[in-house]
């Protein structure tokens, strides 16, 4: 009874915590972690509804995670499936009713839905008990499905999900659905801003900024752990950092089409104008009222700085765009920031942005093969890029690769 009371209190606290998370990917991770805690589930997944399909959007599995080397994350791929009553998640999305399955391998053939065991065969894992819950918003619309796998007792044995688990997960799912819908709105708003930039510069696509932001967060988390930054502080910053990284090039909306869309090489004068997008982007977040504003300004301003000091815009007055007194180079231009003078967020996005740009097909070039891209990053360690950021990048490269598949360019 005392344990249930604690969990009910935790649900209320979770409702407050998830309402403060703005980024969708960070939120899905939090929702699934907390749901698993509430009912002591070994694993789980979240599906997000997209028109008449369910998109497999996030997954966790403690047993599989423990098989990995220390610090490594579970790799998963996203996919979509039609909402029909033939699958467990599809049936729940269609009916809007919770399903508590004692053993997925013993589902009656009389049921319309069946269990797809192909992933179990690939991973060497067995999914038995399943608690699959519709995520409904305040209007009662199903916006997704939460699926929890393999309830465990105190000794780690797989058991059925109980009726009490059902009672706990229902209010949790309501809080989660409202938070997810809010985060979707935030992402949609940001992607619309990106679309404005895309009209000016075709390189600034939704897929590109989602990849860059996701790469940046993974590298930041690994770097922060090596710096012994507390997990609580990492979690707090990841949310704002991911959104800020999506907007790294938003300042391009202030650059003339005649320059951005010019075929061929830029003149020195035109290149100087292009560089102004860092300043224009930072200006959008002046008068910071939140941590997000501060990080977004830093990212926009500093993601073209270089570790060796040869980047831009350097030490400038954000209001005038002119060099700060005492920070002039030999050409009387603003001296570039170097090494730790560059905010860590800018150092990380610099690498994430270059990696994605080289790895992606553009109207003016084909995608480079991975080894060529990785060799460039190795060569630029200590020149363009922070050596520690490069090291963290390579240590999470398996996750980076999976992210690139999660956000493919249109037509791929």
Structure, described:
It is a single chain. With 412 residues, this protein is of the alpha+beta class. The chain has two domains: 2-181, Beta-Lactamase, CATH 3.30.450.40; 201-406, Hypothetical protein af1432 (Orthogonal Bundle), CATH 1.10.3210. It is 50% helix and 11% strand. The protein has 15 helices and seven strands. A hairpin with a 2-residue loop joins β1 (41-50) and β2. α1 runs parallel beside α6 (163-200).
CATH homologous superfamily identity of the largest domain: Hypothetical protein af1432
| Helix-strand makeup class | alpha+beta
Ends apart, CA distance between termini: 52 Å
The major sheet is characterized as:
7 strands, antiparallel
Number of strands: 7
The CATH top-level class label of the largest domain:
Mainly Alpha
Can you tell me the number of structural domains? 2
H/E element sequence: HHEEHEHEHEEEHHHHHHHHHH
CATH topology of the largest domain: Hypothetical protein af1432
**Global shape:** elongated
Low-confidence stretches: none
Second CATH tier, the architecture of the largest domain: Orthogonal Bundle
- How much helix is in the residues? 40-55%
Average pLDDT confidence is 90
Q: Approximately what portion of the residues adopt beta-strand conformation?
A: 5-15%
What's the helix count? Answer: 15
C-alpha Rg, in Å?
A: 23 Å
């Amino acid at each position: 009874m005392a344990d249930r009371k604690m969990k009910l209190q935790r649900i209320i606290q979770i409702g407050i915590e998830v309402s403060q998370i703005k980024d969708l990917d960070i939120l899905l991770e939090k929702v699934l972690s907390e749901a698993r805690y509430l009912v002591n589930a070994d694993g789980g997944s979240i599906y997000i509804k997209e028109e008449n399909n369910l998109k497999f959007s996030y997954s966790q599995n403690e047993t599989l995670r423990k098989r990995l080397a220390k610090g490594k994350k579970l790799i998963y791929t996203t996919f979509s499936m039609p909402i029909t009553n033939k699958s467990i998640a599809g049936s729940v999305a269609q009916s809007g009713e919770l399903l508590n399955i004692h053993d997925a391998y013993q589902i009656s053939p009389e049921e319309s839905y069946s269990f797809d065991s192909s992933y179990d065969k690939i991973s060497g894992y067995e999914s038995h008990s399943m608690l699959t819950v519709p995520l409904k918003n305040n209007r009662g619309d199903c916006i997704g499905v939460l699926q929890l796998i393999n309830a465990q007792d105190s000794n780690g044995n797989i058991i059925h999900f109980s009726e009490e688990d059902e009672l706990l997960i229902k209010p949790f799912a309501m809080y989660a659905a409202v938070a997810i819908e809010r985060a979707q709105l935030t992402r949609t708003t940001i992607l619309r801003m990106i679309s404005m930039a895309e009209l000016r510069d075709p390189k600034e696509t939704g897929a590109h900024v989602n990849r860059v932001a996701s790469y940046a967060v993974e590298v930041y988390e690994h770097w922060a752990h090596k710096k012994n930054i507390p997990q609580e502080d990492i979690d707090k910053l990841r949310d704002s950092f991911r959104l800020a990284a999506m907007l790294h090039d938003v300042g391009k909306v202030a650059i003339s089409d005649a320059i951005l869309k010019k075929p061929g090489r830029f003149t020195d004068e035109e290149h100087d104008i292009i560089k102004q997008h860092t300043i224009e982007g930072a200006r959008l977040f002046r008068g910071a009222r939140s941590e997000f504003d501060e990080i977004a300004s830093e990212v926009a301003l500093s993601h073209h700085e270089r570790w060796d000091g040869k980047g831009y815009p350097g030490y400038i007055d954000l209001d005038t765009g002119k060099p700060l007194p005492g920070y002039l180079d030999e050409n009387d231009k603003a001296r570039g920031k170097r090494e730790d003078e560059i905010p860590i967020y800018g150092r990380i996005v610099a690498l994430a942005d270059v990696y994605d740009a080289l790895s992606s097909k553009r109207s003016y070039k084909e995608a480079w093969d991975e080894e060529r891209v990785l060799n460039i990053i190795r060569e630029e360690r200590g020149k363009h890029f922070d050596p520690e950021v490069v090291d963290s990048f390579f240590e999470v490269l398996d996750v980076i690769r999976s992210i690139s598949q999660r956000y493919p360019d249109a037509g791929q």
